[in-house]
């Protein structure tokens, strides 16, 4: 009858494990075939309703199981489930990785497949349930289990008066470490499990609340003192199965373990010298009164192997040890709790019930638990009324619907999908139907119930009657304590997918029966498990997304544990600065105070310690201004003497520093001492001269190891007449070492290797690449069976593939344009327990869901290959940059320096980022990045997109003088102007923007050496622009509606309008490659400009451009206008576009020499006088000498 193998090799025994086959019980539907020498178990019917149960005789620690097919047959299992129980009634399924329930079986009848349990199981009964078997045979099995004897001390608490108290002796030496462990099981979801109390009523409690274990901090012994929650761990702990609890207290923290999950909890500082006086088990008991504090329900259940600092407390109370007292029972009563699981759409339970008489009553009662908000619980027929009763969940509330009885509806309860047990009672008495949920009455209806068959949850598959059709969602959950008739159904298979929570970074976990969901709102992270940061890792990264200066959240370690921080990114043309403020960046005065010899100042930064350290560490350069203004207040003394003042800087509280801004660490000098320019050569700081006049020592602190400044101590501020002021500026850093860390792979066989990528539950990989090759592997890491790989499969396809034990999966993103264009492209791949995703540049993200109950741990054990594979094939040729794995940047450049075939760095960024430079800005390459050269643009800013604007008054003008043309200066020693150095120049470009309420007004005037000019004016009625031009000194002036302004070479009418002046805003004025307004405002000392009247730089242009609709209800000339002029030789064309209330005039003025122009005719434009502004057709312009410069007026 034994199912173990007959050969001696089957007995794989040693000193600590042996074969456990003490007795075997065969249940219904089992058939043992022993004929013809065959051995093993084979049921008469091969289906999934069979099982084999083994009674080991006593509770045993089971470490492994082994299976074999039936001897000499084609019968074997290919997969199966294992379940364990202490009583044979309440079963629990064994799961690998908390998810996988099935075990791999055999592939023939003779080989032995052994599976070592990841976590040993302590149980008396084992049940094996076949899932799949050889399709050409039957279910067949020989089974062996391995393990060790298990002994324990057990006690039970009744939840009313039972408790155990252990008092520590007054002379007991206290330690900074306490350890406690136990096993517990209960059916009650709330109750005090453990309370530890010290001096002054300071204590810690472990309490069950709604099936979770809470760690509470208590201060004081009064019932009114509200405990403070420190941690919550575990879930569904009221399932009547043993759970392991371990509690380890150290000076500053404690480790709390429930089953396989451990949480580190930081405890308040007063616990560092905490002396334990008393330990209470099962209740909170005051040491003074020796009475239980009934603030919570007491624990009702069983405890096993209760250990405290190596003492077995259950054994001590058995032997009546004087320090331990208790009212407990040394056994564990096992209530027979009948539960049933409804796992899916095909699950149902049909029960028969007696018929209720007209004088009697019928009650239906049960308990249920679920994670789903909706589902049908039960239905039955009202035989006399001919209607149907439906009891179902909807929106987590219980609803009762009676069909064919005026369509009555009732609902009761709320939030019934919390995974807790909820009781339901349906009672019919004297023609009245009532419903109660968790002892709270709902509604009732006048009806007498005559019950026949009552299906719970669903309907039989073969049932086709009208009354059993389910118009509601299917119930997925558990039921127990059915009051109609107990059935021999033995387990509740509910599983808490949110304990421990797979949601990272504070994401909130919710769940249904089959899946969980993470709410990542306000966490700063995204994805199925809130794993990936939604923020960039530096200001440098924001710049390369096209952002300009402003406040941004940066996440320095991406998906790592450091939270995002808010910083200011100051993006200038040359450098991108990250600015982190503290609580006092202003110049602060210090005056003597009576009895105060030193003044100490502490600086609090806007970010946390770990954020500061990481931000400084990844920056290429950091600096902080430190200045001291003094009058008879010495600073550092001499390098040989003791300093009067000092500061602390660096990580944590900082280290003492005795040098000042601009000097070297450890020098005890200021900047003037380093440069030899102090006011007193005998001292190394200006303030150390101790003069009555105000002096200053200031400079930049640039050594990152000493930053940021944490505190400042000023020591010479107490003498009469001493005065001082200090300033510690904001921390400023620039450069991102991680963002530009790159390597170039010049052949397919080249690669870099790094240690194994350990990311069992969550893995994210991000990097940038550029290549001219059509394919190649970016990254690969292998395990025994598992792997992860990211590759360029074709010139337009990126593939992310991996295997965690469920078979290979792929996620693909295809681009509509080739990716081998030698431009930077960004790849972000993520894999977690819920899904895998792949992002490529700005394309839509591609996702692949993970199996709900599959393997989810990625187990890798080989080296990580970058730019190649372990087989040295399909390598990548090109550049990889900013490679990060789970927020950690791999140093590609350092590894590339020692690796043949790979070069550190990767130049050539303007091909990818050059488009960010706008408005004729020029992209300039750098070793790490690029910058936009705005010297040829009328704009400024990091991307040449910041408008340069000015407010003009009536007497304001700007005159820009050009050098004369090469033809006029060929006999002089002066160098020709750069704008005329190209003798093939055929034209000039002019553009400007303006906003004004004035009319008429001259906006713009340009004149040549040959009495030619071009003017742009606003006409008299303010309804349009006029262009007045004269391109041939022998011809009369011509007018085209549109307009401009002034110089000495004007006709009288134009001069009259110019004399009025211009009041308004002008912006982004550009003439060919010259920006006169920008030169006047930003470089007035080095540019050939003459400014008349007040000229104020303003943002009047940019604000209008940002909101072109701001003035749509005002006069149209108060809106902002952008004007470009196009004048063609021989043809003058002006195109007018009206946008909202703005006018756009585009023109181009092709300027040629006087001799050439006289031989040509102006064609295609009809000479016309303006009706709004009368011009004289006979213009007598002043003669202009060829020595006079060409002028450009605004």
What is the compact description of this entry?
Residues 530-582 form the Fibrinogen C-terminal domain. By secondary structure, this protein is mostly beta strands.
Structural features, described:
It is found in: Membrane. Belongs to the neurexin family. It comes from Labrus bergylta. Pfam families: EGF, F5_F8_type_C, Laminin_G_2. It is a single-pass type I membrane protein. The protein is mainly beta. The chain has 7 domains: 98 residues, Sandwich (Jelly Rolls); 164 residues, Jelly Rolls (Sandwich); 135 residues, Jelly Rolls (Sandwich), CATH 2.60.120.200; 38 residues, Laminin (Ribbon), CATH 2.10.25.10; 162 residues, Jelly Rolls, CATH 2.60.120; 137 residues, Jelly Rolls (Sandwich), CATH 2.60.120; 115 residues, no CATH class. It is 5% helix and 39% strand. The protein has 10 helices and 82 strands. The strands form 17 sheets. Strands 1, 2, 3, 4, 5, 6, 7 and 8 form an 8-stranded antiparallel sheet that branches. Strands 39, 40, 41, 42, 44, 47, 49 and 50 form an 8-stranded antiparallel sheet that branches. Strands 51, 53, 58, 59, 60, 62, 63 and 64 form an 8-stranded antiparallel sheet that branches. A hairpin with a 2-residue loop joins β62 and β63. The longest helix has 10 residues. It is globular and about 115 Å long. The N and C termini lie far apart (110 Å). The relative contact order is 0.06. The N terminus and C terminus are likely disordered.
């Amino acid at each position: 009858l034994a199912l173990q193998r007959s050969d001696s090799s089957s007995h794989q025994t040693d000193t600590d494990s042996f074969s456990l086959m003490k007795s075997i019980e065969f249940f219904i539907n089992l058939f043992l075939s022993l004929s013809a020498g065959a051995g093993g178990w084979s049921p008469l019917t091969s289906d999934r309703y069979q099982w084999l149960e083994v009674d080991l005789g006593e509770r045993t620690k089971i470490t492994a199981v082994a299976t074999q097919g039936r001897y000499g047959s084609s019968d074997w299992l290919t997969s199966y489930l294992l379940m364990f129980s202490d009583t044979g009634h309440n079963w629990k399924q064994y799961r690998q990785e908390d998810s996988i329930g099935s075990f791999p079986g055999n592939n023939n009848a003779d080989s032995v497949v052994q599976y070592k349990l990841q976590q040993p199981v302590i149980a008396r009964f084992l049940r094996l349930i076949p899932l799949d078997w050889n399709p050409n045979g039957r279910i067949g099995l020989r089974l062996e289990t391995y393990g060790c004897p298990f002994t324990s001390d057990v006690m039970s608490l009744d939840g009313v008066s039972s408790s155990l108290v252990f008092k520590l002796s007054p002379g007991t030496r206290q330690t900074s470490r306490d350890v406690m462990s136990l096993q517990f099981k209960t059916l009650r979801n709330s109750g005090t499990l453990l309370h530890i109390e010290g001096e002054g009523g300071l204590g810690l409690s472990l309490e069950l609340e709604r099936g979770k274990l809470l760690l509470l901090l208590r201060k004081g012994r009064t019932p009114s003192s509200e405990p403070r929650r420190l941690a919550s761990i575990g879930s569904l702990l009221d399932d009547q199965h043993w759970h392991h609890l371990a509690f380890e207290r150290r000076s500053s923290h404690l480790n709390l373990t429930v089953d396989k999950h451990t949480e580190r909890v930081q405890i308040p500082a007063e616990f560092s010298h905490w002396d334990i006086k008393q330990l209470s088990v099962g209740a909170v008991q005051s040491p003074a009164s020796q009475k239980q504090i009934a603030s919570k329900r007491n624990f009702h259940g069983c405890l096993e192997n209760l250990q405290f600092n190596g003492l077995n407390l259950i054994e001590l109370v058995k032997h009546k040890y004087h320090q331990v007292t208790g009212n407990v029972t040394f056994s564990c009563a096992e209530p027979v709790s009948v539960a049933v699981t409804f796992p899916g759409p095909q699950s149902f339970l049909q029960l028969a019930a007696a018929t209720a008489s007209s004088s009697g009553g019928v009650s239906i009662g049960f308990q249920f638990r679920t994670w789903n908000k909706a589902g049908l619980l039960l239905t039955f027929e009202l035989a006399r009324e001919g209607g149907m009763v439906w009891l179902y969940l909807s929106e987590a509330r219980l609803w009762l619907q009676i069909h064919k009885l005026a369509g009555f509806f009732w609902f009761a309860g709320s939030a019934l999908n919390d995974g807790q047990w909820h009781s339901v009672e349906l009672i019919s008495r004297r023609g009245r139907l009532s419903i109660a949920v968790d002892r709270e009455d709902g509604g009732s209806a006048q009806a007498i119930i005559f019950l026949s068959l009552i299906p719970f949850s669903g309907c039989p598959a073969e049932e086709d009657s009208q009354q059993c059709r389910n118009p509601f969602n299917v119930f997925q959950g558990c039921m127990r304590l059915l009051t109609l008739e107990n059935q021999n159904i033995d387990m509740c298979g509910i599983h808490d997918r949110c304990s421990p929570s797979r949601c990272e970074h504070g994401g909130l976990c919710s769940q249904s029966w089959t899946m969980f969901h993470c709410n990542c709102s306000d966490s700063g992270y995204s994805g199925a498990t809130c794993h990936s940061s939604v923020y960039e890792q530096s200001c440098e990264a924001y710049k390369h997304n096209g952002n300009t200066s402003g406040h941004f959240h940066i996440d320095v370690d991406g998906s790592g544990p450091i939270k995002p921080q808010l910083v200011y990114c100051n993006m200038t043309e040359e450098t991108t600065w990250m600015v982190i403020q503290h609580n006092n960046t202003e110049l602060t005065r210090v005056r003597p105070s009576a009895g105060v010899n030193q003044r100490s100042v502490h600086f609090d930064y806007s970010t946390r310690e770990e954020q500061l350290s990481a931000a400084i560490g990844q920056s290429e350069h950091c600096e902080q201004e430190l200045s001291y203004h003094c009058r008879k207040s010495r600073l550092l003394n001499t390098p040989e003497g003791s300093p009067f003042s000092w500061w602390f800087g660096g990580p944590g509280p900082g280290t003492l520093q005795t040098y000042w801004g601009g000097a070297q660490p450890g020098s005890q000098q200021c900047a003037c001492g380093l440069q030899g320019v102090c006011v007193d050569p005998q001292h190394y700081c200006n303030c150390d001269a101790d003069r009555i006049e105000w002096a200053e020592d200031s400079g930049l602190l640039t050594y990152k190891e000493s930053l940021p400044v944490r505190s400042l101590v000023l020591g010479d501020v107490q003498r009469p007449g001493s005065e001082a002021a200090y300033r510690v500026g904001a921390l400023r850093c620039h450069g991102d070492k991680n963002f530009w860390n790159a390597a170039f792979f010049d052949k397919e066989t080249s690669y870099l290797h790094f240690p194994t990528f350990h990311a069992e539950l969550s893995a994210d990989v991000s990097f940038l690449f550029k290549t001219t090759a059509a394919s190649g592997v970016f990254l690969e890491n292998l395990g025994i069976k598992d792997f992860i790989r990211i590759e360029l499969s074709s010139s337009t396809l990126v593939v992310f593939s991996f295997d965690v034990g469920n078979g290979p999966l792929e996620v693909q993103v295809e681009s509509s344009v080739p990716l081998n264009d030698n431009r930077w492209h960004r790849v972000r791949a993520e894999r977690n327990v819920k899904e895998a995703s792949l992002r490529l540049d700005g394309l839509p993200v591609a996702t692949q869901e993970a199996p709900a109950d599959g393997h989810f741990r990625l187990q890798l054990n080989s080296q990580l290959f970058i730019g190649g594979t372990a087989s040295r094939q399909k390598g990548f040729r090109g550049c990889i940059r900013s490679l990060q794995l789970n927020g950690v940047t791999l140093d590609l450049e350092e590894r590339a320096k020692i690796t043949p075939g790979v070069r550190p760095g990767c130049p050539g960024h303007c091909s990818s980022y050059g488009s960010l430079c706008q408005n004729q800005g020029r992209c300039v390459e750098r070793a790490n990045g690029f910058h936009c050269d705005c010297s040829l643009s009328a704009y400024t800013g990091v991307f040449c997109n910041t408008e340069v604007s000015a407010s003009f008054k009536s007497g304001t003008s700007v005159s820009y003088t050009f050098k004369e043309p090469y033809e006029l200066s060929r006999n002089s020693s002066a160098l020709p102007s750069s704008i005329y150095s190209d003798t093939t120049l055929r034209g000039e470009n002019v553009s400007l923007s303006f906003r004004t309420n004035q009319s008429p007004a001259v906006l713009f005037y340009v004149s040549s050496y040959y009495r030619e000019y071009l003017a742009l004016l606003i006409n008299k009625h303010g309804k349009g622009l006029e262009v007045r031009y004269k391109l041939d000194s022998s011809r009369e002036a011509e007018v085209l509606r549109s307009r401009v302004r002034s110089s000495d070479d004007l006709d009288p009418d134009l001069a009259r309008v110019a004399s009025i002046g211009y009041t308004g805003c002008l912006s982004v004025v550009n003439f060919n490659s010259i920006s006169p307004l920008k030169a006047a405002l930003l470089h007035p000392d080095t540019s050939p400009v003459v400014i008349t009247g007040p000229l104020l730089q303003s943002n009047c242009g940019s604000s209008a451009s940002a909101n072109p609709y701001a003035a749509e209800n005002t006069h149209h000339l108060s809106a902002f206008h952008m004007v470009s002029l196009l004048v063609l030789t021989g043809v003058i064309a002006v195109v007018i576009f009206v946008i909202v209330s703005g006018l756009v005039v585009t023109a181009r003025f092709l300027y040629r020499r006087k001799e050439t122009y006289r031989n040509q005719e102006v064609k295609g434009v009809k000479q016309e006088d303006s009706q709004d502004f009368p011009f004289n057709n006979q213009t007598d312009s002043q003669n202009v000498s060829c020595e006079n410069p060409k002028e450009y007026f605004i």
